[in-house]
Amino acid sequence: MQRTCSLRGIVVSVFLFALVSPTLDAQTSPVQEGSRKWPHPILCRVEDGANADLFVMTLGDVQTPLATGIFDPTKDQVTLNNGRIIKNYYRDSLGIKYFNPINKTYFPLPPSGWCSWYYYYQEIDELEIQRNAKWIADNLKDYGAKYVQIDDGWQGTGHGMGENRDWTTIDKRFPHGMDSLARYINHLGFKAGIWLAPHGQSNPAVVKANRGVFLLKPDGSSASDTWEGSFLLDPSVFDAHNFLRNLFTTLSNWGYDYFKIDGQPIVIDEYKKKKSFMKTPSDDFAVLYRGTLQTIRSAIGGERYLLGCWGIPLDGVGFMNGSRTGGDVVSGWEGFKVALEATMKHYYLHNIAWYCDPDVMLVRPPLTLDQARAWATLQGLTGQGLMASDRLMDLSEDRVELLKRIFPAVDIRPLDLFPSHRNKRIWDLKINHLGRSYDIVGVFNFRDNATDHVYINWNELGLPNAGAVHVFDFWNKEYLGCWESGMSVEVAPTSCRVLTLQPATDHVQLVSTSRHITQGWVDLVDLAYDEKTNSYSGKSKVIRDDPYELRFAFPKSKNFTVKKVTAGILPVKISNHQGWATVQFTSPTTTEVEWQVFFEPSDFYRYPVQKPGNLAIEPAGLDGVNMHWSPQYYLTAGYQVSLDGKRLGFTPNNVFALRNLDLTKQHIVEVSSVWEDGTKSKEKAEVKFTLATMLPNIVYLPELEPIRSTIGWGTIEMNRAVTAKPLSIGGKVFQKGIGTHAVSDVEYNLHGLFDTFTAQVGIDDGNGSEKGSVEFIVLADGKELWRSGLMKKGESAKPLSLNIAGVRKLLLHVTDGGDGNDYDHADWVEAKVVRKKE
């Protein structure tokens, strides 16, 4: 017996090695992608540019001066514009050990559809799945919804984890069986999806009937009892692979084409901890795990979708079509922030190594409509896996409208091939389609207590700085004018704006369409402009009973009206405005419509604008000011702002934010009122200031925007005392502070202005356990300045007071206490910097 086991172990090792390596090359079969075949070289950035608040994506064959190099996914190599070559970029620089370009042979686009979990959780039943599927067929199928995925609750005999981790038993709430339900979903024209945690099992009868498949102790009890299940598959034996193969073959035969496999990082961690219970122990836990994925892939084939879930199972790259890259979302704005964090941290993998899934999208209350719109924008501008998870029949018309404008997910990928350590507010999607090169810019305000004014600089987006740019507000369906240099945008708390930016020419331009947030990519099939007749002709894909709108903008200071429109036999609605016009038609069927729009000159009304009054400024952070002035009584289109003689751009409001200023220089700001054609007021308002003389002597760090923030779990929270879960250490509540979780970094640029840093530190009382141990470390310009020593839950806050004279960058670091980072909620309270009074 011993001899047989040794031989078997050798065979298993060879078998697994053969599975994990050569098959990866076979997964990179070329697929037609626009005018090129994937995988192909793409433009990239490997670090932030001048504006660290900018997050950039591309759609189509985009050209942009923002690109600092080219990434070749086949070679895993970056070639920078300066000639420097970075070899094995994803594998070594980004730490993706098994990097391989995404296989797009069967899945040229990310999945779009619906998942049951985030409304029903385990309380699903056959009828509710059918109701949602039927609703999608009636309301969202034509818009690109393709998948209906059944999550946890279909299996086992109860709730929770117990016998619920039994993939051989179907819950009584599905009386006709899972194969029958898959057939119903497929009959509606969808692909059926199913959730499971396949490496685990909790039914002892199944374990007993499959001897040698699971990790067991010598006495026959489980060696691994986790969230994944009461028992865990032994990846080192053939029988376990046969078990997996049979399981997924059964699910495939039932009619499922989309598999969401959960708890994957648990599996890898358990294989590391429990190798002594394996039939053939190995130290290469990732290879063992990847062997199980290869077995799953061989069972389902390349034409079925495999989604890895729970955190980010990076060891699944090359086998998984997609990965859920964040934690579970929740209802409300906190759920959006989970998806935001996943996008910031892991979007560099999307559509390059696999399709990223920042978890499902919710649009139902308690989200406000503005918050739901922000979540829809996150999905629409990034093109990540798009799975709705509301009870769709209950959504209001306004919320259904959001779904219609972002389905389906399209072929968007990052320009920025690096993780972001901050929640960026300006998201720039660059599109090139049918001769139109334009930008869709999402402008976000993540705060819940204050309106934000965000400055968008055309040059920082790679647009011609001196040229005029048409601006269209997609969600509000409004043309905002044609402006040079840039624009300030007002964004309400927990909301966003979506602006289409189209560099202006000397003729009428199509600047937006209504079908999809990409405004042309999904719907426009053909497009042409005839200069002689001043007309546009095109062909558009339209959805039945969905009003389809074409939005045209006119050259600056000129005006036109729509003279004539043809759209087959469809009735047309024309709306003429100064500076722009819209054409709308509605088809009774989902089809392609050929259309033509003719324009003729019209007069242009002008109003003599007046000088702004009462211009004032106030400090904002350490390197910025907010400008404001009295609103105009008389008519104006807005205001033009200049700094030190250089035009910054336009604002429709009497507010403008200036950032990244030289603190010691005397600045001059000027504001002129401006009309729609760019005509300025004869006089302008002017103020001179030096920022360093305006700053307060005491600044609390939570009130500043960090230049970098990373966290191992959850989100970094500022001044949590205003919430239901205040900052509390050793039984004492603090009003100001930074709530983090090990391992974390929060870094501030202090510009060398301050002399002293003071704070108190400790583990938060509300960490959910009596456990928790961390160490706090302060670094000044990269050098360690202070270390707290080991701190544990329940200890009183430890004070610190440090000399930081001349320090520019202050880094607050929290590391775990050597026992892992579970429950390591760590607070920096009353954290402030002080400078001597002059």
Strand and helix map with partners:
Layout: H1 2-20, H2 23-26, E1 31-33, E2 36-38, E3 42-44, E4 54-59, E5 69-72, E6 77-80, E7 85-87, H3 89-93, E8 112-115, H4 117-120, H5 126-139, E9 147-150, H6 178-187, E10 191-196, E11 200-201, H7 204-209, E12 231-232, H8 238-254, E13 256-261, H9 264-273, H10 285-300, E14 305-308, E15 322-324, H11 333-346, E16 355-357, H12 369-382, E17 386-388, H13 397-404, E18 413-414, E19 426-433, E20 436-445, E21 452-457, E22 468-473, E23 478-484, E24 486-491, E25 495-503, E26 509-513, E27 524-530, E28 535-542, E29 548-553, E30 559-566, E31 572-577, E32 580-585, E33 591-602, E34 613-620, E35 624-630, E36 638-643, E37 646-651, E38 655-658, E39 666-674, E40 685-690, E41 698-700, E42 708-711, E43 717-718, E44 727-729, E45 732-734, E46 737-741, E47 744-749, E48 756-763, E49 773-780, E50 783-787, E51 791-792, E52 798-803, E53 809-816, E54 825-834
Parallel strand pairs: 4-19, 8-9, 8-17, 9-10, 10-13, 13-14, 14-15, 15-16
Antiparallel strand pairs: 1-2, 3-5, 4-18, 5-6, 6-7, 11-12, 19-20, 20-25, 21-24, 22-23, 22-25, 26-29, 27-28, 28-33, 29-32, 30-33, 31-32, 34-35, 35-38, 36-37, 36-39, 39-40, 41-54, 42-47, 43-46, 44-45, 46-54, 47-53, 48-52, 48-54, 49-50, 49-51, 49-53
Helix pairs in contact: 1-10, 8-10, 9-10, 11-12, 12-13
